[in-house]
Specification:
Length: about 70
C-alpha cells in the first residue's frame, strides 16, 4: 500500500478556516493551471507534472521524475 499526495504550492489557509469548512464548501485558489503539481509518494517528492483532462475526467500527467541525489 502507498500513500499518494498531490501538492499545490502557493496560497495558504488558516487553521480556523480549515476547521470551519463544511460539506459543499469550495476552496478557490489563484493557482495557474499550467503551473506544475508535485506528487508525493509515501511522503517523498517523486514526480512533477500537471493536471490534464481526459474526456470528462481530470488526471495527473507525469512530466518529470524527481531523483534524489
Amino acid at each position: 500500500m502507498i500513500d499518494l499526495e498531490a501538492r499545490l504550492h502557493g496560497p495558504t489557509l488558516s487553521l480556523g478556516k480549515l476547521l470551519d469548512l463544511t460539506e459543499g464548501d469550495v476552496l478557490a485558489f489563484e493557482y495557474p493551471v499550467a503551473k506544475p503539481v508535485d506528487l508525493m509518494v509515501n511522503g517523498k517528492l517523486k514526480y512533477r507534472g500537471g493536471v490534464i483532462t481526459t474526456g470528462r475526467k481530470q488526471a495527473f500527467e507525469v512530466q518529470e521524475l524527481v531523483v534524489e541525489p
